[in-house]
């Protein structure tokens, strides 16, 4: 019987490759996808998720200067002082004074708070970091605080600089206002980091914070204390003189009738903000264009006021004679009562043309002057 010999095949290389090759393929695919995400503009890779998303304006990039801002002379004067400090810091420091760390712009929507900030960017000649309060908050915990740190670090590196936070109430809401919904959440971490950063820099370095809000009553008290936002600037609705100044800015590109007086337009627009007046000028120009006129007249502005106050005219809502008579009696009653009330607002127009939603007619009453107080008789009627 012959001798049988057996050879043992070595499979270690095959076994090793069965583990190594899939791993190499997996990591290669993962690396390719990560590189592709990083190279896509605006995709926001994981490596830059904590970076600030502030828009940086330098010199005249905003295209807005103080010449484009009207109707808020006091607020403009305050911010012109900030710009002057950035240009001539030694003049302010010779007597020991220092510029406020933060300036908070407070006022109703549409009064020009953001426009003022852009004018500061256009006038200051220093880097201007603009960011909305909602842009700090992200899905991942800690990202908002990281973005606050990065924003202030960028500003320090390019000082003198201005940081502008729009819609501050999205970030600076009072802590503990809703205790039943949890405690130290992401927004509170972001706010705490903002408070720490505002305490941690010196105004002599040339970094100034501007912020805007139309809801100052909900802001955290620690944010409003002296040493953080030292100065609050009210940007209120303009008076008659302010409305004339604002109209002069917005009618620069509009062909007006030579007989048109902007004072007459300002008289029929009490309570209008700067944004309302800009919209009014545009609507009046559209009305004049629609009727193929060569220029914009007071009648076009009156029609634009009706369009804004009462709504769009409903020409397709045709009433039968009985309904028109009922609407006419109803609106005439409004007009007679308004005229009979002592010191009541002037009746400008009575119409039975349907406008807006569910309005078959209207009586337009507009005050002829700016009023800030009401008498007891006015409140009782």
* Total of DSSP H or I helical runs spanning 4+ residues: 13
Rg, nearest Å:
31 Å
Q: Share of helix among residues?
A: 40-55%
Q: Sheet bearing the most strands, described?
A: 6 strands, mixed
What is the terminal separation in angstroms?
129 Å
How do the SSEs run, as a string of H and E? HEHHEHEHEHEHEHHHHHEEH
Structural class: alpha/beta
Side by side, the strands of the main sheet go 1-3-4-5-2-6
Count of individual beta strands: 8
Q: Provide mean pLDDT, rounded.
A: 78
Uncertain residue ranges: 41-47
Q: Provide the β-strand percentage band.
A: 5-15%
Shape: extended
Task: Explain how this protein is built.
- This protein is 43% helix and 11% strand.
- It contains 13 helices and 8 strands.
- Helix 6 (186-199) links the parallel strand 4 (161-166) and strand 5 (207-213).
- Helix 2 runs parallel beside helix 4, helix 5 (143-157) runs parallel beside helix 6 and helix 8 (240-250) packs across helix 10.
Q: What is this structure, in a nutshell?
A:
The protein is an alpha/beta fold.
Task: Explain the layout of strands and helices.
Blueprint lengths: L11 H28 L15 E3 L15 H15 L1 H5 L8 E5 L6 H12 L3 E5 L10 H15 L3 E6 L19 H14 L7 E7 L7 H4 L6 E4 L5 H11 L11 H6 L6 H17 L7 H12 L11 H20 L5 E6 L10 E5 L9 H5 L1
Parallel strand pairs: 2-5, 2-6, 3-4, 4-5
Antiparallel strand pairs: 1-3, 7-8
Helix pairs in contact: 2-4, 5-6, 8-10, 10-11
Features:
alpha/beta; 6-stranded mixed β-sheet; two-stranded antiparallel sheet; 13 helices
């Amino acid at each position: 019987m012959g001798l049988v010999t057996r050879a043992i095949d070595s499979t270690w290389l095959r076994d090793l490759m069965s583990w190594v090759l899939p791993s190499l393929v997996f990591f290669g695919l993962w690396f390719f996808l990560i590189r592709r995400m990083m190279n896509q503009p605006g995709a926001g890779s994981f490596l830059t998720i904590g970076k600030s998303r502030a828009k940086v304006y330098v010199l005249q990039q905003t295209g807005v200067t103080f010449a484009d801002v009207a109707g808020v002379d006091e607020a403009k004067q305050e911010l012109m002082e900030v710009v002057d400090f950035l240009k001539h810091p030694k003049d302010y420091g010779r007597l020991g004074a220092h510029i406020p760390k933060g300036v908070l712009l407070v006022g109703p929507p549409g009064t020009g708070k953001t426009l003022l900030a852009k004018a500061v960017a256009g006038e200051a000649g220093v880097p201007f970091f603009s960011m909305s309060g909602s842009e700090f908050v992200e899905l991942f915990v800690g990202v908002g605080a990281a973005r606050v740190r990065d924003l202030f670090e960028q500003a320090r590196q390019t000082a003198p600089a201005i940081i502008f936070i729009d819609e501050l109430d999205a970030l600076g809401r009072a802590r503990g206002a809703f205790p039943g919904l949890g405690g130290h959440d992401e927004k509170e971490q972001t706010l705490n980091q903002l408070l720490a950063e505002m305490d941690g820099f010196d105004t002599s370095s040339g970094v100034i914070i501007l912020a805007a809000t139309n809801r100052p009553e909900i802001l955290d008290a620690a944010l409003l204390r002296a040493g953080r936002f030292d100065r609050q600037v009210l940007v209120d609705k303009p008076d008659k003189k302010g409305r004339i100044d604002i109209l002069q800015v917005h009618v620069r590109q509009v062909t007006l009738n030579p007989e048109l007086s902007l004072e007459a337009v300002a008289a029929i627009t009490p309570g209008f903000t700067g944004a309302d007046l800009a919209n009014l000028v545009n609507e009046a120009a559209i009305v004049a264009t629609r009727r193929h006129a060569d220029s914009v007249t007071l009648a076009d502005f009156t029609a634009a006021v009706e369009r804004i106050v009462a709504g769009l005219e409903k020409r397709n809502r045709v009433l039968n004679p009985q309904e028109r008579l009922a609407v006419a009696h109803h609106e005439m009653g409004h007009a007679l009562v308004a005229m009979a009330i002592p010191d009541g607002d002037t009746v400008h127009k009575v119409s039975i043309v349907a406008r807006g939603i569910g309005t078959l007619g209207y009586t337009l009453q507009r005050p002829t002057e700016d009023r800030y107080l009401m008498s007891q008789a006015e409140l009782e009627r």
